[in-house]
Amino acid sequence: MTDYLTHIAQTVRSISPDIKIFAKNLPAIRAQGIKSLSHGIDIESMTGLFDVNGCDAMHYYNHSGYPLMGKTEWYDLLTSVELALTDDTLFTFISPVPIDIITQTAYADIWQGAVHSRRQSVVWLWDRESDKVTNAYKNANMLMRPQIVANNGKLFLDMQRLANELFALQNAKREAGILYSYNSMTYEPSYLNSVYLAYTNSLFLGEKPLFVTESQTEKLSGLEALIIPEAVSVTDETYAKIKEFAENGGKIFVIGENSLKYNEYLKERNADEILQSAVVIPTYESKTSEKTSVDGLFWPLKTFFESADLYDIAVLNSTDGTPAENVEYICADYNGGKIINLCNYSDTEKEVYITDNGAEIEKTLNLMSGNKTGKHITLLPYTPVMIRYARSSPSMFADRVYGETVISTAPHRMVSGTYKISVSA
């Protein structure tokens, strides 16, 4: 497939060198178990091949097979292997779902996509058709839902207005990594599910992880910590690089006792020299299971991040001071202060507060509304919030504020949204 696409790209460029070449890939990372073997694209081989790297990703509300964080996982994998991306975003609305939830999940999809480096959102509207009135595409056209149109119109303006802040979040330093092993997809049916659990729990602890593939292990040198999620089969070269990473002070968190124990030909190795100094979380699924069975991942991963000095900013429940569950947050330094994007991926409202190295943040600026807020922040379901606070500088409110609008004086980056009408699936 790579050779075929390379031939097409080279042929087009030989005819018209200035034309921009675009390709759209399905997010193979969402396929788990044996299905992953049918997605035979090595996405790394696409690096430098196209001018625009598209995605045909989707999510359905409350559907375990198409979660919203499954889309952002794919984006973060692409940017980890240095593929800049855009995206065709497909929204399908199941009619029994309340309109408020659908409105907010649509909003979260576009906004969180931008936070995770999606540079353009193309919204497929799926017009009504007689042969699709009984399935997932029933009443899927957003133009028939004024509340969603209004909400997304404001969203696209917010994305332009806060493009600099989004750009800062997209390029925030990644200090924790996840080992991404094509070999382990072949030999461990639950591998990709384990990758997803490592990814989501990292984000719930404020770390956007870097995916480190076996051909790019030189990137380990820029990390403080590495998560190895049931990667049972890695090359000898990868194993040696991980061993070197550990010897140089890197922290390692392992899911599954059999991780690293085989090479790409299933020749067994003794991995104790790495595993003995790592945090190892046992798994309990059967050999054929495509789902990881583990007794909780969040709390041991939190302790691990603390030991690696990666948990300086915490989002805590106002009621009892415990970490807020199912709340993703990403942080970045910006203009002498700190910006944090938060998204509550649960169906219940949460009230939270933020600590920075143990100190409670008493004043923040909500960049979405322009309002100054106090210690407590309300997070509605699937409603992203971007805040800013001063860490050690009085420049937190340095931007000019008019009413409820914060106007940035810096040059804007491109983050855009577009509607696309389609009449077929």
| Portion of residues within helices | 25-40%
Return the average pLDDT rounded to an integer: 84
**Distance between the terminal alpha carbons, to the nearest Å?**
24 Å
Number of helices: 10
Going across the biggest sheet, name each strand in turn.
1-2-3-4-21
SSE class:
alpha/beta
| Low-pLDDT segments | 92-96, 393-414, 418-425
Task: Please state the CA-atom Rg, rounded to the nearest Å.
Answer: 22 Å
Please provide a written account of the structure:
By secondary structure, this protein is an alpha/beta fold. 27% of the residues lie in helices and 24% in strands. It contains ten helices and 21 strands. The protein has helices spanning 2-15, 68-80, 99-115, 146-161, 163-170, 182-187, 191-203, 236-247, 272-275, 298-307, and strands at 22-25, 52-59, 85-91, 118-124, 176-180, 210-213, 225-229, 251-255, 279-281, 313-317, 327-334, 337-344, 350-356, 359-360, 364-366, 372-373, 377-379, 385-390, 400-402, 405-407, 416-420. The strands form five sheets. A five-stranded parallel beta sheet has the order 1-2-3-4-21. The chain has a five-stranded parallel beta sheet with strand order 6-5-7-8-9. The chain starts with a helix and ends in a 5-residue tail after the last strand.
Quick overview of this protein structure:
By secondary structure, the protein is of the alpha/beta class. 27% of the residues lie in helices and 24% in strands. The longest helix has 17 residues, at 99-115.
List the helices and strands and how they pair.
Elements: H1 2-15, E1 22-25, E2 52-59, H2 68-80, E3 85-91, H3 99-115, E4 118-124, H4 146-161, H5 163-170, E5 176-180, H6 182-187, H7 191-203, E6 210-213, E7 225-229, H8 236-247, E8 251-255, H9 272-275, E9 279-281, H10 298-307, E10 313-317, E11 327-334, E12 337-344, E13 350-356, E14 359-360, E15 364-366, E16 372-373, E17 377-379, E18 385-390, E19 400-402, E20 405-407, E21 416-420
Parallel strand pairs: 1-2, 2-3, 3-4, 4-21, 5-6, 5-7, 7-8, 8-9
Antiparallel strand pairs: 10-13, 11-12, 12-18, 13-14, 13-17, 15-16, 15-18, 19-20
